[in-house]
Fold each of these.
Amino acid sequence: MNELEYLYIVIIAMAISTYITRLTPFILFSSGKESSMLNYIAKNTPPMVMMILVIYMLKDLNYLSSELLHTFIALAITIGFQLFKRNALLSIVAGTAIYMFFVQM
Amino acid sequence: MVRSALKTSLPIMFGFVPLGIAFGLLFQELGYPWFFATLMGIIVYAGAAQFMAIGFLSAGLGVLEIAMSTFFLNSRHMFYGLAFLESFGNWNLRKFYLIFGMTDETYALLTTIKVPEKYIKERFYLFITLFAQLYWVLGCTIGALSADILAFNTDGIEFAATALFVVLLIEQWIMVRRILPFTLGFIASIIALIFFVNHMLLIAIMISIASIVILRVIKIKNE
């Protein structure tokens, strides 16, 4: 498998995975039957996954460098904006801009 | 109706175009031809998953792991459809496309707006969904192309993905407000980091789901 084939297959796999998640409720609930366990899993997955993803993104931080401080400041700005403005894009752009500023300084 | 839908969809433009550009710029760091960013915007059409894929692609992760991570990352979309079981109407091509286009942003907008009575709801939804994807594809393309043309210093832009997940985590907390799933996610992450650092994401998700099922079964048995 060469590099472009790999990329094509990844894109197709991601398209299918994404579509399945969006299609699932329409398939599951079209017949009107509900599974309480599936419901429970589905309800709890997003918060668990978000927590895992944040830790995943931060796991490679170098704890002995200035990167740690940059990341904490950028995180604080992202969290602060999100808590007070509730505008996802603004929070992301503000945090990323600060982080890029530190990294490129 | 098209003009009215276009106007209604504008808030999404302000979100999708810059975020798409950020994706396109970052994607170009991988060194693939620019149109792959456009292709992803067209057939995958998932912001967070596309950002995540950049890291996975550069690490050369397996297709199965990428597919599963995409699935779990997007598993929040499973609830989005619940709001539209009725209003997307009968099964036809339009409905398949409306489901395909169910991103966080379209979901938020479609659940917030009131469709003027003179318009057919599904068609109004269709145009908004279509415009939203157009903004996203446009952003991805502009980003990928300008990375080839301009030498823009993108060092640090990868933080956008971290920031996105932090934002979603906060939104999850505001929505859910139960400490259990967050604690389980945290513990599962730590266990996975200690024992399976190379497959941390997948293993942590599996541990957390297994543990929430076990806790649920124990709770039901005790009642």
Note: Chain A has four helices and no strands.
Amino acid sequence: MDVSQRIVLHFPPRITNQSIVCRLAKDFDLSFNILKASVTPGEEGLMVMELSGDQRNYDKGIQYLTEVGVKIQSLSQDVVRNEARCTHCGACVNLCPSGAFSIDPETRNVLFDHNKCVGCGLCVKACPPRAMELYF
Amino acid sequence: MAKTIAEINQKIKQGKAVVVTAEEVIDIAREKGVSKAAEEIDVVTTGTFSPMCSSGLFLNIGHSTPRIKFGGGKVYLNDVPAYTGLAAMDIFLGATALPDDDPRNKIYPGEFRYGGGHIIEELAAGKDIRLEAIAYGTDCYPRRKLETWININDINNAILFNIRNAYQNYEVGVNLSDRMIYTYMGVLKPELGNANYCTSGQLSPLLNDPYYKAIGIGTKIFLGGGVGYVAWHGTQHNPDVPRGDNGVPKEPAGALAVIGDLKQMNPEWLVGTSMLGYGCTLTVGIGIPIPVLSEEILRYTTVTDAEIFAPIIDYSEAYPKMKAGNLGEVSYAELKSGHIKIQRKDVPTASLSSYYKAQEIANILKGWIEKGEFLLTEPAAPLPGAESGITIKPLKERPVME
């Protein structure tokens, strides 16, 4: 069975000079699409990617990353809408490059689809009441 | 069938008034016809929830011991400067005021995380605010420095006084240039990458009363979750603009100055707002009841999004350079569909005004009136119409010779 997940990888400074991500393809036959990366040797690195492949290989790949010291989180845990601040104006709807926001045509409520979010952060500063929060 | 406000108020007190929102009235009139609907309905409620920059707050915090005179001195609220050119203890805080050390657009686009609008929201929420004042000292007001926490529950007055709110229609902002621009109409992507609009259309107060036959000076309204009043016509009120057959202006026209006691308002309806690269402001919730005094007044409230048109304006060139002309007109029905056509290009739309919250406001106001908690007021004077000769003029600059 195939899976595809959007995940956030945090690389501790001591391993940012090792080649890790390429082994996901070589050793575990997984494919990845890097959505965002900021990795500088000697500093903590960050990578947001969509990782896909066979479920068993996926689990092994994740286990490998964990063993080498990479901290992994699901992207949806890192991009959060502060429901108390969102006014449902909809300013985000046509800005989001991946179409993660939409308007319910009936209620005119602004909907946020985590699965479409690529974590670019464009909405964070453009949201007038600043309801979008990014934690990486 | 003509009703008076006194008659409608009688029905409100008895709990018998028929109140519908400006959205509900559309289907009712379609079903029953305008004259039957006008007979049955007593009040139509409207709503809008949008960033409104010309908003601000008058504060009187009570005299300190010994006394200090703010007038002519300097006052900061959470580092945001307030205006002091009034009597000893009165100050004014504008929604767009920024801390002196805010980098503004020096780091472009500026984030404008915190300003006057945010303080108004926090005061309404009952949060403590730090006040710092420096004064020059007089015989009767000797004190020169004051640093204290203030809270809305302890101070004498907190009066929201917004000199231009609830615009009757607004422009649709687009960007024809080849770079991203940051405007009060939001972030506009290059080469017609998006189009932003900013009224609640068929729910918007003045779009339901295009000739100001129901809303006037003294009209009691929903303001920021509490009760307020229309104080005057708004600055730049411009009634003499092209209008459709239904009377609805085809460009920004009328506006309202509104006033109310912040102490009974709610931060849910007064939200501190940051426009990237532009500045801080306040998103204000306003709901206005329209008494159905005649069939004509009811007919105006049946206006639909398909019958309200807004001009499309280029904010990269035409707007900043005051160039006349637009890129066409679109209806709010088209804008709300999510896409419009401009110069044969399919452009995604977004709103800065929350229709969802506007619906909520119209429904809250409807509930207040149905429960007999909110009576209507007779306007003390009408808002100026086209016959008043009021227009807005551009500035005529005159060189200053040394």
Note: The interface with chain A takes residues 49-51, 109, 111, 113, 186-187, 189, 194-196, 271-276, 283, 338, 348-357, 359 of chain B (CB under 8 Å).
